[in-house]
Amino acid sequence: MEDRYEIHVNPGFGKKRFSRQELLDIAVSMLVLGVAFAILYRSGTVMDCLRYHLGDTLCWLGLIAICLCLVFFSFLLHELGHKFVAQKYGLWSEFRMYPMGLVLTIVTAFLGFLFAAPGAVYIRGNMSDDTNGKVSIAGPAVNIVLAVAAIAGLVAVHGSMGDVVFLHDMSLLVYVVLMMMASLNAFLALFNLLPIPPLDGSKIIKWNSAVWVATIAVSALLLAYIYLWAPSVAYYPF
After folding, report:
1. Which residue out of 2, 6, 22, 79 is catalytically annotated?
2. What's the pTM value of the predicted model, to 2 decimals?
3. 225 belongs to a structural domain
4. Which residues pair with 92 in a beta bridge?
């Protein structure tokens, strides 16, 4: 009696593609995460600036738009990094949302912190440790690049490495949004690089320990800069 087994084949071998179900899952996950971040940041500097410029009603639309951008330039691009590299190697790779994870995301946002578990990229096919490591490093690598870009934007906005930077309304808003983007991406990179299964770090260290050490060190330095060495911001209204 012959052994039977299932082979997952990626349609359009090696090409980037999305299924309808995947696009729906991505859209729902992004919307829920965007709303969760808006709930979390509903009282704070960003909301104060938006309320000043847009009024009490439109400020919510502005906040949700900013939060959706943060979700796109952090969580989603992280997952797409995994997806596209996996597809490059001819693997079946699609994002699927976690319904219970999305519920927890909203609930924790109301409690004042965020447990973000919107979903993940599922991969099927034969993967060597080498391929698995390269697929796994793609997500944190995207976050590191985005964190560096956001920090470069911070330097451009405050134009100084001094202890205190004085900013007016719009500059303050841009600075705070870039700070949120930098810290979120640096944290995502560092967290996912922890060598604990099923996190990316456990697969990367198995593939190439030197790459793992380098990337987790860079992530830690980026997070340290954001929280320890980035200039303090003082607000002035004119």
Report:
1. 79
2. 0.87
3. yes
4. 124
